C-alpha cells in the first residue's frame, strides 16, 4: 500500500488540515515499519513522521536554491503529483525529508 493512501485512511486531511502532533503520536505508537522508496528502489525501516514542510519547500542545493519537487524531477525524473502535500521523514533520521507519494509499505 502506498503511504499517501495509508495516511488518508488513518487521518483524512493529513496533507493540509489534521493535527500533526496527534498524527505523529499515532505513527510513533505504530513503531518502525519497512518501506520501499520508489525513486531509489531501496528498502528503509523506520518510524514515519509527518513534517510541517511541503514539497514546494525551498532549500539550498549544489545547483542553487530549489524546491523538493524540482529536486526530485531533476535528480530522479519524478514529477510529484501533489507538491502541496506535507513531506514525511523517518523519526530515527530527522533530516530525511521525503515526499509521501514515493514511499510504499512493505508487507
TrEMBL record:
Biological classification of the source: Eukaryota, Metazoa, Ecdysozoa, Nematoda, Chromadorea
Protein's UniProt name: PAZ domain-containing protein
Organism name: Caenorhabditis tropicalis
InterPro entries assigned: PAZ_dom_sf (IPR036085)
Amino acid at each position: 500500500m502506498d503511504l499517501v493512501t495509508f495516511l488518508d485512511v488513518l487521518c483524512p486531511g493529513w496533507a493540509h488540515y489534521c493535527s500533526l502532533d496527534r498524527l505523529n503520536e499515532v505513527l510513533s505508537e505504530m513503531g518502525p515499519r519497512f518501506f520501499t522508496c520508489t525513486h531509489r528502489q531501496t528498502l528503509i525501516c523506520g518510524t514515519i513522521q509527518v513534517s510541517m514542510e511541503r514539497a514546494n519547500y525551498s532549500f539550498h542545493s549544489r545547483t542553487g536554491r530549489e524546491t523538493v519537487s524540482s529536486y526530485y524531477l531533476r535528480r530522479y525524473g519524478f514529477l510529484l503529483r501533489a507538491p502541496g502535500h506535507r513531506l514525511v521523514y523517518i523519526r530515527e533520521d530527522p533530516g530525511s525529508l521525503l515526499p509521501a507519494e514515493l514511499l510504499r509499505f512493505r508487507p
